[in-house]
């Protein structure tokens, strides 16, 4: 048997290739949209990818199952649990097998047993893997998707908070408790292979190691220490981070399908600064992907800064309007990686891009913003010249914040501009300075110019000004 682990650091997403080397057949569990890495492995190991296994309808990335079906003719193995709202659609033209609790299927000498594990979502299933290529007659591991993580479990509130399905949070929490009681009965030696690691918004305390065991999680996973259902449900729902706004889009995309990557139109190269400035004047969204320090020193008015780093896909999902064309200012060598990141969360409407270094030089008048130290910010507040705007998450704000700070999480800022108190200089602040730079660019692009960015954020404030 062959087992390979693939991890997308941008989305904290894990996928797996499982192959039977005796028959040359393989499947991919919870595949990412860009399937090149699976193609390369299949070619190297002389495998034919015959299946794509999905643990549930994902909300945080675009699944690559349909890409695998198109490229390899792979069969989709997907859940048939849950009610009508959580059934896969538009798959009749694809080879597929609908799965319920207790079902079993074989790939070569590999046996997959299906376990319905609702809680994170109603249709969630897990796959128990047995390798019958040797003498084993018991499962060696379980692909849990977003059911059980290292040190955490899947959150049940996404359907309500991101997709607007009222009342599903408490129902999901109840189901999760039942699913975990079933999980506890699995043998301790069983390996656990989850679909996410630390940094994912699909839970609140995910570990950063790639795998675990049932026995280890029984001992140390907070969610498996509860015998009282009500106490567990309360703890599970408390303190969950804000779900990115794009999660609702991903749920729909993965349920109904998305255009194949090969069919997406090619974005055009913007020829001049004048062309770009006209796009901005006409209200089009333009992202500048440079580091915040470079952007702050000089940028084209009306552009929004989301630096291209590990957090890029997350913040793009929060901030980009999926329904409108998008234009990018970037370094040419990063083009492929940028498009891969955007496609992974379903942002397919990139209409054009430009080399940011070249186009900046053509612009007659650039804008900029000022950053201030904690001491300078404190003096502005004391002198009645500034208001603090904290753009961190709700949980970070609740754990501690600057006195009298207004709170608007950066991902929601574009829809809450009327709440910004701009009668004084707005001092934009986050935890360390990265998110506040994004927020500053959003405010500037929307005409709020009387502002500064707090260097080092709340951490620097505490370090320098705490008594």
TrEMBL record:
Pfam family, one: Rhodanese
Gene Ontology MF term list: hydrolase activity; metal ion binding; sulfur dioxygenase activity
Domain of life according to the entry: Bacteria
Keyword list, A-Z: Hydrolase, Metal-binding
Keyword Acetylation appears in the UniProt entry: no
UniProt GO BP: glutathione metabolic process; hydrogen sulfide metabolic process
InterPro entries the UniProt entry points to: Metallo-B-lactamas (IPR001279), Mito_Persulfide_Diox (IPR051682), POD-like_MBL-fold (IPR044528), Rhodanese-like_dom (IPR001763), Rhodanese-like_dom_sf (IPR036873), RibonucZ/Hydroxyglut_hydro (IPR036866)
Listed CDD domains: POD-like_MBL-fold, RHOD
Domain called Rhodanese: residue spans: 280-310, 382-466
PANTHER family: PERSULFIDE DIOXYGENASE ETHE1, PERSULFIDE DIOXYGENASE ETHE1, MITOCHONDRIAL
Name assigned to this protein: Hydroxyacylglutathione hydrolase
């Amino acid at each position: 048997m062959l087992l390979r682990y693939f991890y997308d650091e941008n989305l904290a997403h894990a996928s797996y290739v499982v192959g039977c080397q005796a028959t040359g057949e393989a499947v991919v569990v919870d595949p990412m949209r860009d399937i090149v890495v699976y193609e390369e492995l299949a070619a190297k190991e002389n495998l034919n990818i015959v299946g794509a296994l999905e643990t549930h309808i994902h909300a945080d990335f675009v699944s690559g199952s349909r890409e695998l079906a198109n490229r390899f003719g792979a069969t989709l193995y997907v859940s048939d649990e849950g009610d009508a709202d959580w059934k896969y659609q538009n798959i009749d033209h694809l080879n597929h097998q609908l799965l319920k609790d207790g079902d079993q299927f074989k790939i070569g000498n590999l046996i997959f047993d299906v376990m319905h594990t609702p809680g994170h979502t109603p249709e969630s299933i897990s796959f128990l893997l047995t390798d019958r290529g040797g003498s084993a007659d018991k499962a060696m591991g379980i692909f849990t998707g977003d059911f059980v993580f290292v040190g955490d479990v899947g959150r049940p509130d996404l359907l309500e908070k991101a997709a607007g399905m009222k009342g599903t949070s408490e129902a999901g929490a109840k189901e999760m408790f039942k699913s975990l009681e079933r999980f506890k009965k699995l043998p301790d030696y069983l390996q656990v292979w989850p679909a996410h690691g630390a940094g994912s918004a699909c839970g609140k305390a995910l570990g950063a190691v790639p795998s675990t065991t049932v026995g280890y999680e029984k001992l140390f996973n907070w969610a498996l220490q509860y015998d009282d259902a009500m106490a567990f449900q309360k703890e599970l729902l408390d303190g969950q981070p804000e779900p990115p706004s794009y999660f609702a889009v991903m749920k729909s995309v993965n349920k109904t399908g998305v255009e194949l990557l090969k069919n997406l139109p090619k974005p055009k190269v913007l020829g001049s600064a004048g062309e770009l400035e006209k796009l901005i004047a006409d209200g089009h969204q333009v992202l500048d992907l440079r580091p915040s320090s470079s952007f702050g020193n000089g940028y084209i008015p009306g552009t929004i800064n989301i630096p291209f780093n590990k957090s890029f896909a997350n913040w793009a999902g929060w901030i980009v309007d999926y329904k409108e064309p998008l234009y990018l200012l970037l370094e040419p060598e990063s083009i492929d990686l940028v498009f891969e990141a955007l496609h992974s969360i379903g942002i397919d409407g990139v209409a054009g891009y430009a080399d940011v270094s070249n186009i900046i030089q053509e612009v007659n008048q650039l804008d900029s913003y000022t950053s201030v130290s904690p001491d300078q910010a404190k003096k502005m507040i004391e002198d009645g010249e500034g208001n603090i705007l904290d753009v961190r998450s709700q949980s970070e704000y609740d754990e501690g914040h600057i006195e009298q700070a207004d709170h608007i999480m950066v991902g929601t800022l574009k829809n809450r501009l009327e709440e910004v108190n701009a009668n004084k200089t707005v001092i934009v602040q986050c935890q360390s300075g990265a998110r506040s730079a994004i927020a500053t660019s959003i405010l500037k692009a929307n005409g709020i110019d009387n502002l500064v960015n707090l260097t080092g954020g709340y951490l620097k404030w505490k370090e320098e000004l705490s008594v």
